[in-house]
Amino acid sequence: MADPSLSQTRTPEEDTRAEPTASGMSRRRLLGTAGATGLVLGAAGGAVGYAAAPSGATPLTSVGATKVPFHVKHQPGITEPLQSRGHLLAFDLAPGTGRREAAALLRRWSDTARRLMAGKFESEDDSDIARDAGPSSLTLTFGFGYSFFARTGLEQQRPTALDPLPAFSSDRLDRARSDGDLWVQIGADDALVAFHALRAMQKDAGAAARVRWQMNGFNRSPGATARPMTTRNLMGQVDGTRNPKPQEPDFDERIFVPEEGEPAWMANGSYVVVRRIRMLLDDWEKLSLREQEGVIGRRKADGAPLSGGDEKTDMDLEKTDAQGNLVVPINAHARITRPDQNGGAAMLRRPFSYHDGIDPDGTPDAGLLFVCWQADPLRGFVPVQRKLDRGDALTPFVRHETSGLFAVPGGAAEGEYVGQALLEG
Description:
The two termini are 40 Å apart. Strand 7 (352-358) and strand 8 (364-374) form a beta hairpin. The chain is built from twelve helices and nine strands. It is of the alpha+beta class and 425 residues long. It has helices spanning 5-8, 27-36, 60-65, 99-117, 146-151, 191-205, 251-255, 281-284, 289-296, 333-336, 381-389, 420-423; strands at residues 85-93, 139-145, 182-188, 209-218, 270-279, 348-349, 352-358, 364-374, 398-408. Helix 4 (99-117) runs antiparallel to helix 6. Strands 1, 2, 3, 4, 5, 6, 7, 8 and 9 form a nine-stranded antiparallel sheet that branches. The chain has one domain (5-11, 59-412).
């Protein structure tokens, strides 16, 4: 089944990654200073933070030094730029584990996340995997699945927005690798830092929970291009042009549960849909360039809509060619997934690509670990996916193999742990 992520997932390199320049000033601070002096930074302005590097790429030292705070309004790992390495895990609580043990586990996880995100990797039982590295934009994000609430006696606190997703006709779901009581997302710009955090989460789980499933992903590394660019997926398509942007006035309304929302413990939180989407790359690569562009509705070279302009140009859905045919086909993926074609439904897509080897028949097991955030999945993911289910040109080239929905509470205040309002409320 096709998915809204495949044409709209955005790598927000031009947003707010605080990369130190060679002079010691962070990119965010440098951009802010430029704005204060009257400079107008357009699309090219995103490259300012790269200017100090002779090679045109971000120095490795600055990539490693980038630190993301743990104590924030919304959990880290939602609005930060895509990291180059990621791990997604689901845990099931062990038999006999209840609310008290779950609270202790979330406290352990939060304490470890706080320490590791600050770049403090050494501890008495540390494996030394990441000892020589900086924090490398490490983030850890925690969520609760539908089944968690019955296992901990908290059914009355389960949000209605967490009700199971409806079935979609093209789903081919492996239930053993779907859902789960608890969900953990790990992202970092260094593979060893990410793996170190993964091991720490597994060890902290102890006897309280066991891994239900794990998925590993990657994205383009910071500094891999001469200037910040929207990333590409494994189909070679520019992927992320129309993602919601934090500076948009309705961004928080679309992505986060309001402070006065229900239930109260989800204030400033969000709901994440996680899907493993295999790309049928052998079939896709048999298409001509023109056919691939018709399936997506955008030029492969630069991500511009087939109706003309550049990547950021609004798509003209009514434009026709000399024969009177729509320039952007009626079933093109980019047309179907547009918010204005779905009652304004929008999601913040923040995925990882994956490659898990070659099947016995020679087929690559590769695709997208789709991760999307919204204030309510019934107003975000579900209506868009239902429309894709009815006739997206990309459907023959992708297959949804796993699925999960998790409630991700707001960030932890100083001295608190993630989910404390639920588990101790």
